[in-house]
Amino acid sequence: MTSDTAAAASRLCLACGLCCDGTLFQIVRMQPEDSPDQLAALGLRIRHRGTDYWMEQPCAALERLCCTVYDQRPVRCRKFHCQQLARLAAGEIDEGDALVLIADTRRLADRVRQLLAQSGYREDGAPLQEQFDRLTSTRIDPQLEPELAETRHHLETAMRELKLRLARDFLPPPPVRDEA
Ligand code: SF4
Ligand code: SF4
Q1: Phi, psi (5° rounding) for residue 159?
Q2: Taking the model in full, what pTM does it have?
Q3: Of 1, 125, 169, 175, which has the most beta carbons under 10 Å away?
């Protein structure tokens, strides 16, 4: 990555935050090089089961789309490059294209949050997928609650659209498996 591309990538991240704010991921797994104690001391929400450590999302270190522990961030954060950054580095898109797509994707995520609130979900700081799963685990009878059923329909549509967008434009493509 050239220094110009790295600077553009940094500007994109500062306009985005989707991989830190609970939209893209629910947790970030700790790697052997990470020190869970040091990261917890920085205020990150570290949890563990036995020797399996992870950090909860949305990340406690994210402030106004900026990582406040950037120089000490976990290994997975350092290594993660979403598809926007990968395409930028490959010259397939320019910064302007990526900024438009990021802004539009943030609007989609905000729409899901708005519909969750309209559906009666009280914001609890959980990752977006978890909020959606909890809310939609209860069924609505359209005969008894037609307005709520309509909001639920809009919510499911918005979440579907968001997930397609995240898979297509942000999450790394799944690894190709060799045929046995
Ligand atoms: S999703 Fe991509 S552009 Fe957005 S903050 Fe994460 S790495 Fe940066
Ligand atoms: S430590 Fe920084 S880069 Fe990692 S998830 Fe938190 S805010 Fe994002």
Answers
A1: -65, -40
A2: 0.93
A3: 169
Query: Alpha-carbon distance 39 to 58, whole Å?
Result: 15
What is the position in ligand 1's atom list of the atom closest to the CA of 80?
7
Cis peptide before 58 (omega within 30 of 0): yes
Best residue for ligand 1 mutational test, from 1, 25, 57, 84 (most atoms within 8 Å of Cβ): 84
C-alpha of residue 22 to centroid of ligand 2, in Å? 11
| Contact residues of ligand 2, CB 6 A cut-off | 20, 28, 59, 61-62, 67, 69, 73-74, 77
Q: Which ligand is nearest to the CA of 29?
A: 2
Please write the tens of the pLDDT for every residue from 44-94. Answer: 999 999 999 999 999 999 999 999 999 999 999 999 999 999 999 999 999
